[in-house]
Amino acid sequence: MPFVPVLHAEWLKIRTLRSLVGALAAILLVTVGFSAVTSAHPDHSDALFSVFFGVSLGQIAAIAFGALAVAGEYRGGALRLTLTAAPDRTRWFAAKAVAVALPVFAAGLVTGLLTLAVGRANLGADAPPWGDGLRGALGSALYLTLMALLAAGLAAVLRSGVTTLGLLIPFLLIVSFVIGDLSAGAADYLPDRAGQIALHSTWDGTLGPWSGLAVTALWSAAALFAGAWCVRRRDA
Questions:
Q1: Out of 10, 50, 176, 192, which could bridge 42 as a Cys pair, Cβ 3.0 to 4.6 Å?
Q2: In whole angstroms, what is the distance from residue 24 CA to residue 9 CA?
Q3: Residue 52 in this model has a pLDDT that exceeds 90
Q4: Mapping DSSP to helix (H, G, I), strand (E, B) and coil, where does residue 129 land?
Q5: In angstroms, rounded to a whole number, what is the distance separating the alpha carbons of residues 167 and 178?
Q6: For the whole model, what pTM was predicted?
Q7: Has residue 150 got a pLDDT over 70?
């Protein structure tokens, strides 16, 4: 089966599952909601991060979306049916990754722009410049997309959404901060810390906003390659 029909089939699965639609909606609601609170009581040393602070919590919804979109194939023999219709496993997994990335990027871009509008309204004269703000909005969309793809790749390796979330959520909320306190230089190359540089007005270290996102992209690509390898090698 050609790639486009496979992609269309994967998109139909996503838009008809309430849990996945709910996760997309949660990206916007959680990010904008928490960002509105932090920008109303800003950290004046980094106004841009005050505006986009909610992304650090909205990413949980993004990784849930990526993990559940892939893990659902491993329940009830769904993957066997999928591969009957689309026997090229690499093509199917590529279509699944695109079907995860596109809606998350769209939701992330809307979320980033709305978050910026709310943050600028709250901060008034202390709001970050438009250039920084638009970079933060685009950076947040790219970051959320990459984290969703990281979760999608890991879910294909682990064949479980629960296990994937059980690993990633504590890592993002606890382990990354502990490692950052112990070894700031090495921690800059963790996927979450590297990607979130784009949400800061200023930064230390060797990575900048775009190079940080590139590091996160490498983590996501590694997870997707591992996931594709497992899909090709394992029984459905």
A1: 50
A2: 19
A3: yes
A4: coil
A5: 15
A6: 0.95
A7: yes
